[in-house]
Write a structure and sequence with these properties.
Chain lengths: 370, 276
């Protein structure tokens, strides 16, 4: 019996020694649940578009003589709008006829899309003369289509960047599909509230931009913060656009893209609709919570926090508040300041947007803190 | 005297029998523990490649003596669904045994997707880590020959181009969620920063929480053993055990690969493409 106990004891000791030698603990697995798979598809708004047809005229020439990187059917939406305005179009496929055709009297506009070949000196001069005679010029490039468009655009002091614009926060289903909501009033931007461009490049000079990218839209190449624009309108004669895709089905039906295409057709066929420039923004009311009205002189005798606010008649992009001429970097329509020492304090506010700048509203606070 | 010697002799025999029995029982029920090493090298684009990786992961799960697994990853990723398949298989393995990822030169895109399923990720100081995003080719419109008939407009292409772009965005969202969930509080990047699909070197990846530490494969094996609670373990090269080599699969893939693929039907990739 003792021998059996000894056998069990030795077996257990050997087992325990091996276990201690090889095993030091037990694995505690973390949660291995799959991530939430309920991912919804981003929704792109498709607008049903009913066109208001306006009467245009003339011939629109479309360059196909410089290795232009597009198929004619991709342009169908724009071509239909040109025809519906009573104008006609013609593809120019012979480079020898390019200059000659531009001199014809009924030619109203020239459309140049992503040319793979550079323009000769003679071609450039012919286009320049055409524009100087009052002809309209539409230049379109697209980052996904290689082009030598700058060989022509540069003579009008324009440049298409070899970048693409992107917005990671708000987009039409991909970070390269950007929204544009800030427009400078002109015939090309009439009735536009929101358009979507599908991989667009930025265009110089941005000061002539008529569709300005918002602060969350960045360039793949330009790292210096600046106003980026993929649409430039120069002298009401030259329209430059950094995207071609918005013209193609089904991208034309997103947001106000169809309206933009109609506006482009109006521009090319000479439909002139005067667009009234909106007046400058104006501050229409202001308030402080000390006097609880629009008084601009406030007197206090003890430490006090005072709330100021201003309301404008238009949406303001930038509010500027100053305290004794020091910008307090508060881009809001209100401002709170605690007055804890005696003296005269001047608080100014003004706002600005694409239409201009408001008047300045000033408060004077006379603090006599005991 | 003679009886005492006889007793001593029989006791020694019992002790020897006990040692033998102890070793036998240990080997029968416990075995010497081991850490399995699985190499995932090259792109995960082919079906055979995916099946090889899956079979290695299953082997690691089923063999009792393998108590922990180290994934040695050197890959730019691959086709989205294949990477997801491997990711789910690693998660399943992690429920039973600790999994440590050790990123070599590249743990990008789908390869990083696989790595996030591990309990712990090591990288080298200059490993390329990240590229969290999707690459896809939009379906091409087709011209139908007269002798072919299809029953719906998307039968050949799957979706229209604009809808497919939205689908790709949803696939990206799934990838981001996997990274955010698996890395948890360790992740120092925002969702927006992750969605930039940036490729980080190892030391930056550690700083922003994409990996846990900088270390060698040996350190990864030691960490795996530590999490499994084992010591004095063996290391098993599972690729060798199953005779699976990965030399046929390119470490980096360039755009010409994608262009060679049939692109009427849409395909999504978690793939870092070699810059041209």
């Amino acid at each position: 019996m003792r021998k059996i106990y000894l056998l069990i004891l030795v077996t257990l000791i050997v087992l325990a020694v091996q276990l201690i030698y090889y095993y030091r603990g037990i694995y505690q697995p973390p949660s291995s649940a799959l991530h939430d798979l309920n991912v919804s598809l981003p929704i792109s708004k498709t607008e049903r578009y009913v066109e208001e047809i306006t009467q245009g005229s003339g011939l629109v020439l479309i360059d196909k003589a410089h290795g232009n990187q597009f198929a004619p059917h991709e342009l169908n939406t724009l071509l239909i709008r040109i025809l519906s305005r009573g104008a006609s179009f013609e593809f120019l496929s012979e480079s020898s006829a390019f200059r000659e055709k531009l001199r014809e009297a009924d030619v109203k506009a020239l459309v140049i899309i992503a040319p793979a070949d550079s323009y000769s000196k003679e071609d450039k001069k012919a286009v320049k003369d055409f524009v100087e005679r009052g002809g309209k010029l539409l230049l379109i490039a697209d980052p996904s289509r290689e082009s030598e468009i700058n060989s022509l655009a540069s003579q009008f002091k324009m440049l298409f960047w070899n970048d693409y614009l992107y917005n990671l926060r708000e987009n039409d289903g991909n970070y390269q599909y950007i929204y544009l909501t800030q427009f400078k009033p002109c015939e090309v931007t009439k009735k536009l509230e929101k358009i979507a461009f599908y991989t667009a490049c930025s265009i110089y000079p941005s000061e002539m931009g008529i569709a300005i990218a918002d602060q969350n839209t960045f360039s793949s190449r330009i790292e210096t913060p600046s106003n980026l624009t993929p649409m430039v309108f120069m002298d009401e004669k030259i329209l430059a656009i950094g995207d071609f895709t918005f013209l193609i089905e089904p991208y034309n039906s997103a947001w106000d893209n169809n309206q933009l295409i109609s506006n482009i057709a109006d521009f090319l066929t000479g439909v002139v609709e005067k667009v009234r420039s909106p007046a400058q923004p104006k501050i229409i009311s202001w308030y402080n919570n000390k006097t609880k009205d629009n008084s601009t002189y406030i007197s206090i005798s003890s430490t006090e926090a005072i709330y100021f606010n201003a309301t404008a008649d238009q949406k303001i992009d930038i509010w500027v508040w100053t305290l004794n001429d020091q910008d307090i970097n508060n881009n809001q329509d209100s401002f709170i300041y605690t007055f804890n020492q005696s003296g005269l304090f001047y608080i100014n506010v003004s706002g600005s947007n694409l239409n201009g700048r408001t008047q300045t509203v000033s408060w004077c606070v006379n603090a006599t803190i005991k | 005297m003679g009886i005492e010697i006889k007793n001593l002799g029989s006791n020694i025999l019992v002790i020897i029998a006990g040692i033998f029995l102890g070793v036998l029982i240990f080997n029968l029920f416990f075995e010497q523990p081991s850490v399995g090493v699985i190499k995932i090298e090259g792109s995960v684009l082919e079906n055979q490649r995916t099946q090889d990786i899956i079979s290695m992961l299953r082997y690691a799960r089923e063999v009792n003596s393998i108590k922990a697994v180290v994934l040695v990853i050197d890959s730019p990723g691959g086709e989205a669904s294949r990477c997801e398949e491997v990711y789910i298989e690693v998660l399943q393995l992690r429920r039973e045994k600790p999994v440590i990822a050790s990123i070599g030169a590249t743990g990008a895109s789908g390869a990083y997707y696989i790595a996030v399923a591990a309990n712990y990720i090591y990288a080298k100081p200059t490993s390329s880590v990240g590229s969290i995003g999707v690459t896809a080719i939009l379906p091409q419109p087709i011209t139908l020959p007269e002798d072919r008939i299809i029953t719906g407009p998307y039968k050949t292409t799957g979706k229209d181009r604009k809808q497919f772009a939205a689908t790709v965005e949803a696939v990206k969202e799934g990838f981001l969620r996997a990274v955010i969930q698996q890395r948890g509080d360790r992740l120092k990047l925002t969702k927006e920063e992750l969605s930039r699909a940036e490729l980080y070197i190892g030391i930056d990846a550690k700083r922003n929480g994409l990996v846990d530490d900088i270390g060698s494969i040996s350190q990864a094996i030691a960490k795996a053993a530590d999490l499994a609670g084992i010591a004095n373990y063996r290391t098993i090269d599972i690729n060798k055990e199953l005779n699976i080599t990965s030399t046929n699969f390119p470490l980096l893939v360039n755009e010409s690969y994608l262009n060679q693929q049939s692109n009427t039907a849409p395909v999504t990739y978690f793939l870092y493409l070699e810059p041209r």
